[in-house]
Amino acid sequence: MIVFRCVVLATVIGLLGAASTEAQELPWVVDGTIGYAGFVDDSTKNFFVFGGAVRKHVTPRISIGPEFVVMEGGDSLTDRVVMLTGNVVFDIYPMHGPIHDKDARTVTPFLVGGVGGFWRRDRVGTGPFWASDPAFTAGGGVRARVAERVSVSGEYRIGWELHQRLTGSVTFEF
Fold first, then answer.
1. How far is CA 107 from each of CA 17, 142, 154, 169, rounded to the nearest angstrom?
2. Number of CB atoms found within 10 A of residue 91's CB
3. Mean pLDDT of the 75-104 span
4. In what helix (H) or strand (E) does residue 10 lie, and over which residues does it extend?
5. Residue 161: is the preceding peptide bond cis (ω within 30°)?
6. What's the pLDDT at 19?
7. C-alpha closest to that of 36 among 137, 163, 131, 162
8. How far apart are CA 166 and CA 25, in angstroms?
9. Mean pLDDT over the full length of the chain
10. What is the pLDDT of residue 122?
11. How many domains does the chain have?
């Protein structure tokens, strides 16, 4: 629970700090994500991933905000993972702004990292069992603008509890 509180506090502080940059009209973005995760155990356990994030640009290249992800295995009632992380995303090139802006790129690689909490429900004996741990993810990908305020991306991350994740996202800029 302490990790969750730290993530929430860090996100709030970051967003309050971002309020001072509002005159620069740095955008908010909302991501919708879908993909695959493989958890390393005796053998790899496969999971379907879906979730979303809300981020605020604090500089033209850096955005911060919470991400909520649900991962479901073969039995969605007893094989589920929920992650809540506070993420930092670093775009190699800035992408926000009008699509015709000479400083805004249409394709950029990016790096992402986050810390937070991890909750897993699994079958133990005859019933479900919940466990929680601190969590982190780190990785990167490529984002491409497809419309004035819409982009798509593909990314690869590794995280703890030890897993790898391959996802695609649609991002809307406000």
1. 28, 7, 12, 14
2. 20
3. 79
4. helix 2-19
5. yes
6. 47
7. 163
8. 32
9. 84
10. 79
11. 1
Nearest partner of 64 among 33, 34, 25, 31, judged by Cα: 31
Straight-line distance from the first to the last Cα atom of the chain, in angstroms, rounded to the nearest whole number? 32
The region that residue 97 occupies, defined by phi over 0 for left and psi between -120 and 50 for alpha, beta otherwise, is left
* Residues sharing a CB contact under 8 Å with residue 99, sequence separation 6 or more, in sequence order: 106, 145, 147, 148
Q: Look at 112 and 14; give whichever has higher pLDDT.
A: 112
Q: What is the pLDDT of residue 1?
A: 53
Quick one: DSSP state of residue 102? T
Distance CA 67, CA 108 (A): 21
CATH number of the domain bearing residue 155: 2.40.160.20
Q: Give residue 130's pLDDT band: very low, low, confident or very high (50, 70, 90).
A: confident
Enclosing H/E stretch for 2: helix 2-19
pLDDT recorded at residue 150: 93
Range of the structural domain that residue 47 is part of: 2-173
**Total number of residues shown for the chain:** 174
Residue 32, pLDDT above cutoff 70: yes
Strand 163-173 with 62-72, pairing: unpaired
Q: Cβ contacts of residue 13 below 8 Å, gap of 6+?
A: none
pLDDT at residue 96, rounded to an integer = 64
